[in-house]
Amino acid sequence: MSYAAIGAGLAVIGAGIGIGQIGGKAMEAIARQPEAVGDIRAGMILTAALVEGAALVAMVFAFFVQAKG
Amino acid sequence: MISIRKFCILLVFSALSLTGLAQHGHENHPQEQAGEAAHPGGQTQDHPAAAATAEHPEGEHSPCGHSLSAEHEFNAGENAIHHIADANAIHLLGNAYFHLPCILYAPSQGWTFTKTSAFDAHHHGNGTKSHEGYVLVHANIMRLQNPALHSGELPVEDYMEAEEEGADGKPRTVFYALINGQCEPLDAKSTLDGGIMGGGITSFYDFSITRNVFTMLLTVILLFLVFRAAAKASVAREGQAPKGLQNFIEPFVTFIRDEVAKPNIGPKYEKYMPFLLSVFFFILGLNLIGQIPFFPGSANVTGNLSITLTLAVLTFLITNLTANRHYWAHTLWMPGVPAVLKIIIITPIEVLGLILKPFTLMLRLFANITAGHMVILSFVSLIFIFGDAGQSLNGSIAGIAASVPLTLFMMTLELLVAFLQAFIFTMLSAVYFGAAVEEPHHH
Lengths: 69, 443
Hints:
The complex is a heterodimer. Chain A is an all-alpha fold. Chain A has helices at residues 3-32, 37-68. The longest helix of chain A has 32 residues, at 37-68. By secondary structure, chain B is an alpha+beta fold. Chain B has 2 domains: 2-209, no CATH class; 214-437, no CATH class. Chain B contains 10 helices and 14 strands. Chain B has helices at 2-26, 48-55, 76-84, 211-236, 245-265, 273-291, 305-321, 325-332, 339-386, 393-437; strands at 61-62, 65-67, 90-93, 96-98, 101-106, 110-115, 129-131, 134-137, 140-144, 153-155, 158-165, 171-179, 182-187, 205-206. Chain B has a 7-stranded antiparallel beta sheet. Classes of the chains: A mainly alpha, B alpha+beta.
């Protein structure tokens, strides 16, 4: 086992919390204003993608650390 | 849905590391590197010949490493990576291959044009003949280092793999071909990764139509035919209800225009529509064809970093070449912020952001598609893990019972991801274009 794997895991935990927050809040928003579902869904996917991007950068760094040994 | 994927990726990573640990336990001799645990057979040897013959006198291991054709312990991680990687030939069934053209260039030898059938591939995609110094190892072309073997066709008895220390002191995998009982070292093809992923410039370059290139060309031809039919119908039936293929394509096109381009780019959206539509349908087509587990599909094109890199670089170029003065002013010299803060924080971050945006675009597509395929391959590997690599029939039946529903579930999820990732790539490209052409607000 290596530190890189732990780092990748931590990054995924962070992204999981972030995307969970986005999804939960979006559900709340849709429940409040069902007529705005299209806008909310687009914003939700966009923000989730951005959060995911940060996690991916962390995972790639972890991967490089692993490859560099 | 995205968090489910993350969870699955996490599961697979932990499963892979567990199998690695289990195999580590099997080995009696201590490994030198912790990272070596994933390669149960590979030993770090200073003197391969002496060490291998001393430890394995029964003949399964030859003087220059362990044989690639010998049956060894099943390794789920290696197997998955082998199947999602690019290759020079497409494996159909058993020993049958779909042969692809090879275009090879070695500075010392010039161009070589051939087909993968010249290597007479058998089990595991290992060729039994060399062709002008080139051989086929695991369906990938490699070149013999020995210049005496660079002409004609020679029978190759077997291929060997060994862990050796490279020039920089890092362990790396080297391959050998067994010709006339002699171990001949092999060169892998040149890769332009600057050594980050363990590649580098070697003695030859591979410009072949590989599995990925073949599938990409196939998809492009398919898309061309579909869109020509749809466009023709749309022109011929103007003002009437859509018909046939046009009926299928039009909702996608209007969706990209009305939901992606217009709200994110603004009034100048028309200039960007050709790129957005091309990139959406290209990614979608490749994602869907990559889902087919057998011949015309089976290539993991959007899960290849080179492809996603090219797409992301296109977005980067279009963003920055069409950007207006307002965008550059906000990137390089943010108005309304103290000058010290601009120099220390804002400008460096904004400039870094210019590169990070396409970088995450590249990685998001690559990671999502590759992770999905890895999960499916790990589930399929359950059959071989439970069945002890074909030793136990009862085990493999249990493996199938576990594997089929899980694989079905993942494939359905991947169908969603195929659309979602094509949409997200297009959407984010549109957002970046929108930021580049936004007009200043007058307060």
